[in-house]
Design goal:
This protein is an alpha+beta fold. The chain contains four helices and three strands. Helix 1 packs antiparallel against helix 4 and helix 2 (55-67) packs antiparallel against helix 4. The protein starts with a helix and ends with a helix.
Length: 112
């Protein structure tokens, strides 16, 4: 088990950095929306499929989406995620996101 953890540790470290960067970027986007009332907010709901195989990776993806301001994962049903986004800008980067790519690498290393 320790060997598996050591194999995915670089991915976990990268994931944490990417998550922090995305949270900061999204916060600045939210601040811009709040401070510029002329920006029209158009909430949307997006359903997309993920290629992630494990439940743990899907939950990590859903939690990362929810932690990023402007998006909330509403549900996970198998490989489908339902996400509410504050506007289309936030919804645009969900499918095939960098989160999903890193988690996919973690799955390959951990599960073999």
């Amino acid at each position: 088990m320790l060997l598996k953890f050591l194999k995915i540790f670089p991915y976990m470290f990268l994931y944490a950095i990417v998550l922090l960067v995305e949270i900061v970027r999204a916060n600045f986007s939210i601040i811009r929306i709040v401070l510029a009332p002329e920006i029209e907010v158009e909430p949307c709901i997006l359903k997309f499929r993920t290629a992630l195989k494990s439940t743990a990776a899907r939950v990590a993806l859903a939690n990362s989406i929810t932690l990023t301001p402007g998006t909330i994962t509403v549900s996970i049903d198998g490989d489908e995620l339902l996400v509410h986004a504050l506007n289309h800008e936030f919804a645009g980067g969900l499918e095939g996101s960098v989160f999903e790519k890193i988690l996919s690498g973690m799955e390959r290393k951990f599960y073999g």
